[in-house]
From TrEMBL:
The keyword Membrane does not apply. Pathway: Secondary metabolite biosynthesis; terpenoid biosynthesis. Keywords: Hydrolase. PANTHER family: EPOXIDE HYDROLASE. This is soluble epoxide hydrolase.
Length: 316
């Protein structure tokens, strides 16, 4: 991995695995679902070559980081707390933050709670999610998209046994990472068998080696920890009531693909290109929509994303 180093750090009561490379200002990379530090492998090398220290942890529940058993141990406060402890351990006051998918959601919370620790933010795929004080997150998703919307299906239940244990980690990852289906993401029960899951050939940007590395980690840990992020959506809604209507006040660049399943979910595109996004994130400086690009944008277009990140953070 071209000199990427690995170590374990004690943070916030857990042991966290961290991949890192380079010296200089810290760029903190926050991965999404179902990913690991590994999804940033290209950006780690690229950003380090520009004179930065790239730091990419496995979030709690993932990879070689501890996975607490309680669902309630996966709130946005736990995850942000882990990351604050991580940057404290690096001995730095402020970092650049880069997030994708669930990592983007965590990055929005990070910047909302602790803007004093952030120089600038580059977020991919998932825009800021406005907190509606009148309805909980999952209830809102269910009202819009029905019971088979993936976030509703990922709530406590038997999803692991129905699907992940039937198909296996490698095929789950192949199916999710290679999907070009646009939003909203629907996860019907009738899909839950190995024979019913159509898995296309791997694209040029994803190898069997990539799949096998990720699958080996999910085989060890399972998917329950990662799913607990979705299962804390409503708890996050309750706990963040004091921040209802609060703004993310850090310099921000947002990047999304035009066939991303989030971007193509009804209402998302309209929000991203509206004044509301700018109202929620008043220091939003750029919105980039990449043509013909899907959800796993940092892996699908690694060089372009690395350049977008560097072009933005070098201003600060």
């Amino acid at each position: 991995m071209e000199g990427i180093e690995h170590r374990t750090v004690e943070v916030n009561g857990i042991k966290m695995h961290v991949a890192e490379k380079g010296e200089g200002p810290v760029v903190l990379f926050i991965h999404g679902f179902p990913e690991l530090w590994y999804s940033w492998r290209h950006q780690i090398v690229s950003i380090a070559s520009h004179g930065y220290k790239a730091v990419a942890p496995d979030l709690r529940g993932y990879g070689d980081t501890d996975a607490p058993t309680s669902i309630n141990s996966y709130t946005c406060f736990h995850i942000v707390g882990d990351l604050i402890a991580l940057i404290d351990s690096l001995g730095v006051d402020k970092v650049f933050v880069v997030g994708h998918d669930w990592g983007a959601i965590i990055a929005w919370y990070f910047c909302l709670f602790r803007p004093d620790r952030v120089k600038a933010l580059v977020n991919l795929s998932v825009p800021f999610i406005r907190r509606n004080p009148a309805i909980k997150f999952v209830d809102g998703f269910r009202a819009k998209f029905g019971d088979d919307y993936y976030i509703c299906r990922f709530q406590p239940g038997v999803i692991e046994a129905e699907f992940f244990h039937v198909v296996g980690s490698a095929d789950v990852l192949r199916g999710l990472l290679t999907s070009r289906k646009t939003g909203p993401p629907i996860w019907p029960k009738e899909r839950l068998s190995a024979t019913s899951m159509a898995i296309p050939p791997l694209p040029s940007w994803l190898s069997e080696e990539d799949i096998n590395y990720n699958a080996s980690k999910f085989d060890q840990k399972g998917f329950t920890g990662p799913l607990n992020y979705y299962r804390c959506f409503d708890l996050n809604w309750e706990l963040t009531a004091p921040w209802s209507g609060a703004q993310v006040k850090v310099p921000t660049k947002f990047i999304v693909g035009d066939v991303d399943l989030v971007y193509t979910t009804p209402g998302m595109k309209e929000y991203i290109h509206s004044d509301l996004f700018k109202k929620d994130v008043p220091f939003l400086q750029e919105v980039i929509v990449m043509e013909g690009v899907g959800h796993f944008i940092n892996q699908e277009k690694p060089d372009e994303i690395s350049n977008h990140i560097y072009d933005f953070i070098k201003k600060f």
